[in-house]
Amino acid sequence: MLKYKELVLMVIYVMHLESMDCTFRMYCANKNITTPVDQDKTYAIVGVLMDIHDNGRNIKECGPITIQSYMYLAALRWTFQHMNDNNYLDGINIGIKVFDTCGYREAAVKHALDLLPEMYNTPDDAYCQVDQDNAFLAGIVGPGISESTVFVAEALKDSGAPILTHSSTAASISGLQNVFRVTLPDTEQVKVIIDVITNLKWSVISVIYSDDTYGREGYEEIKKQALEKNICIIQAHMIKTSHNEVAKLSKIMKDIVGTIATSGIMGVVCFGQASTVEEVFIGVKGLMEQNLGHLSDQLQFILPDSVGINSNVLVDYANIAEGAITISPYIDEVEEFKDFWVDMFSNSSMVSTLSATDPWIEEVFMLQYECTIPTHPLISELPFKHYSRNCDEITREEVERKFSQSGYTESVIHIAVTLTEALKIVRQKVCKKPNGVCTELLNNKMILSNMTNIIKKINISYTNKMTFHPKKYLNKRNIQFNATTGDILPDKSVPQYLVHNYKRCGHYGTQHCLERVGKYENGALDINLTKMKFYLDAGVTDVTKYTSTCPEKCITCIQQIEERDKFPVIYIEGDILIMAGFPVHVQGDKPFTCGAVRWGAGVDLVEAFLFALEQVNRQPRTGIFKDITKDMTIGAIIFDTCYSQLRSQQFIYSVFTCETKLTYEGKILESDVISKVAAILGGLGSSQTKALADITTKMGKVQCSYGSTSPVLSNRKEYPYLMRVVTPDDKQVAGMIQLCVQNNWKYVSIVHTDSRYGTDLANLFKSLAEKAKICVAVTMTISTGKGNERDAAARNAILEKQSNAKVVFLLADLQSTVRFLKEFKNNAKSGIFTFVMSESTNTNDKLKSEELGNIALGSLSFKMETEPNTEFRKQFLKKTPWNMKTNRKWFKEWWKSKFNCHFPDSFDKSGAHICDQTEQMNGTKEDSWVPYVIQATHALAIGINSALKSYCTVEPTKLCEAFVEHPKEVIEKIKKVQLKFETTGEMTSIFDEDGNGISDYGIYNLQLDPKDPRKKKFVQAGKYSVRESKLEYNNLTAKFYDGLKREVKVVSQCDVCPDCPKDETSENSQQNLLFGTSNHEPLQKGLLATLVMFLVMFLIAMLLAVSLIITKKREKRKENERAAAARKLYDNGGVEYSDVSRHDENVYNNISIDGSDGSESFHGQYIHPQQINPQLQQPQPGPSHGRSEGAHVYTPSH
Question: Stretch 543-570: mean pLDDT, rounded?
Answer without folding.
Answer: 76
